[in-house]
Design brief:
436 residues; alpha/beta; 434 Repressor (Amino-terminal Domain); Rossmann fold; 8-stranded mixed beta sheet; 20 helices; 8 strands; 9% strand; binds guanosine-5'-diphosphate; binds magnesium ion
Amino acid sequence: LSDKLDKAFHVLKGHGSITEINVAETLKEVRRALLDADVNFKIAKNFTSTVKEKALGQDVLTTLNPGQLMVKIVKDELTELMGGDSVGINLKGSPTVILMSGLQGSGKTTFSGKLANFLKTKKSKQVLLVGCDVYRPAAINQLKVVGEQVGVEVYAEEGNMNPVEIAQNAIKHAKSTGKNVVIIDTAGRLAVDEEMMKEISNIHKAVEPQETLFVVDSMTGQDAVNTAKAFNDILNFDGVVLTKLDGDTRGGAALSIKSVVNKPIKFIGTGEKMEAIDVFHPDRMAERILGMGDVVSLVERAQEQYDEEEARRIQKKIAKNQFGFDDFLKQIQQIKKMGNMKDLVGMIPGAGKMMKDVDIDDDAFKGIEAIIHSMTPAERSTPSLINASRKKRIAKGSGTNVQEVNQLMKQFDQMSKMMKMMQGGGGKKMMQMMKG
Ligand code: GDP
Ligand code: MG
């Protein structure tokens, strides 16, 4: 058996199971990454505890090592939280009416131009942009400049201070000029206030848009959550647009907003230019929030540390002749935790052939475990105590016979000797063996 275990360790160490220790270590790093990305503290905490549950229940029946598997679980869970698949824009209705909402400076006017350009070039739509920001003459001018840039007509009514009327007239105009999409740009305030909410709500009721989009600056972090909630309470919007996701903004707001209003994020803005628009992809966003490169290396480092500590601990014990049955049992449990041995081994590239002639059977461990469990703590840590009468007692207690106890003792002895021998070859070699 020592031979079998030796081989099993060699193959499996690098592909070990996910343990409490490396999960805790890893999740600490993940939580830090989320907070760095400006994800709400509570959401980050909930997220890590969900991931923990999933991770501990995972069989490592893949060719990923535990570090990689953790990263995968974290990324998948984050992707799922942000909506799984990307959600498109609803283009039904003739014309399709799209209403922009959001605070002043969030990027509504810029995004209106980007979306007009996107629908015109990617979906071959005839688009009309409508200026309903009636309070600042500069706002209408800005929309006109944007419209010119993308070659889309802009509808505005100088002197008319009633945005509901303008929106309704614009839709009539769109129908009579054969447009199939109307994008309504609205006025925002610097903060949520009643008047703004009343106005956007009135426009919303009057034009019954197919798509009401909430535009939010991804750099506003925590505030974005409250704003999103306020707008959603009034408009029950259809989707979110995250702007200013250029530079090194990590975009934690995406996760927070999605968790609070449970509406899909549909587009992201990644720059001031009209081409800087992207359909939102939850998986890419997950990578961005995690700063994937960072987390991958952090997770791997945590994993290495764990392996090295464990190897060092065992190495020390062997050096002091303290490697006992408890350590032996731990190793067996480690192996068992990984699930069905044959399946597992079969999935490791190259290992299938190597292990072909090795009969690994989960049941094989049962007797061993029973025997070790029947030993007293003293016997486990100092196997030389185990004399003939103790063997008899252990056999009886474990439902085995003395012959089997003897066999295990012999195997254990061989294994300890082998380990000691390897240690003579230098600590490095031992570490390598333990790590696989
Ligand atoms: P509005 O008040 O909601 O209409 O916001 P604007 O469209 O006027 O945008 C406010 C500012 O943000 C402008 O200076 C835009 O150029 C800038 N902006 C909008 N979207 C983005 C973006 O995705 N990236 C960057 N870097 N700037 C943006
Ligand atoms: Mg504007």
